[in-house]
Amino acid sequence: MQLKKQDIHKIFQKLKLEVRSTDHIFGWLVVDGKKILRVHYSFGKGSIPAKVTDKIRGQLKLDRQNFINLVKCPLSKEDYIKIIKEKGYC
Fold first, then answer.
1. Which 8-state DSSP code applies to residue 73?
2. Segments making up each domain of the chain, as ranges
3. Is the overall model pTM greater than 0.70, yes or no?
């Protein structure tokens, strides 16, 4: 699944990731004051290739369908946190 950088940026905003920019954009999901996971992607031009999108999906610990739901908006931050808690990440 190829995405635009704008789509990934929207995910960062939706999940309210703490962001730091260097050569890449890094975002940390913080739950109850504790850093749970890190997501990153590179600056650059154009769309994000499917291979990199799959890596971002893996960093978010989501299956393909939940990732699509996160991108297309039916999956809220609260639903996302519930999913990763069920998987034992926080």
1. S
2. 5-86
3. yes
User: Within 13 Å, how many C-alpha atoms sit on residue 60's CB side?
Assistant: 32
Neighbours of 12 (CB within 10 A): 17
Residue whose C-alpha is closest to residue 6's, from 38, 48, 54, 50: 48
- For residue 89, the model assigns a pLDDT of 85
Q: What is the CATH number of domain 5-86?
A: 3.30.920
Average pLDDT score, the chain: 90
**What whole-number distance in Å separates Cα of residue 7 and Cα of residue 10?**
5
Q: How far apart are CA 9 and CA 15, in angstroms?
A: 10
Dihedral (C-alpha) 31, 35, 22, 58: value to the nearest 10 degrees? -80
Q: Is the pLDDT of residue 17 over 90?
A: yes
